[in-house]
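thread: overnight batch results

M.L. [08:02]
morning all. the overnight job finished for the chain we discussed friday. pasting input first so we're all looking at the same thing
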Amino acid sequence: MKSKKRSVIYWGSTVFVALLMGFAGVLFLFRLDGSMKVIQHLGYPGYFAPLLGLARLMGAAAILLPVPKTLREWAYAGLTFDVVVVIVSILSSGFPAPAIVQPVIVLMAVQGSYHCWRKRRADADADADADDSGPRTA
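M.L. [08:03]
and the structure it wrote out:
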């Protein structure tokens, strides 16, 4: 895939994920009514909402901001676990099966963003190595 196309896919999916996770994070962090109904329907205790909200906000920030590679890797892992748990919880709690469509789309966006980030990073590392491999003078 060409570098420009990968950048468009990367930024599109990354901003999409960050906005969704950021918005959901605020709803859960401040325990707004809609989010608390979902938490209760899924069978989770109310105190779980602010923890999820903070984790989602931190994950969204970590994929947008210039952070160390390991932190970004952990953020992608955390967002992936979060969305997979949402899918399993929806299927296990009596929501209709079509309710998983949105989380599946978010999971695909998280994975698309992660894949493009890894490819962009590999390309940048290869370019840096190519620049360093030229003849050296004393």
